[in-house]
What we know:
about 80 residues; mainly alpha
Amino acid sequence: MNTTHGRTHITDDMGNDIVTASQMDAEYDALCAVAEAADAEHRTHCLLLTQNCPLCLALDQLDQVRQSECQHHLN
């Protein structure tokens, strides 16, 4: 088995997915693409201080999670 983004994939001995992708996987991937686009757009156009903008606060928390995941993978 292989776990990516908190999702478990059943794989064969060669590491290939045995179960075909479900519609929920496609929806998840599409939502991730939307979130990434919104993230980039908001970061370039927001004129508020991080403390005053709820989206900036959420993006800051996301950055902290991503940073801790990178450090975890490097160890």
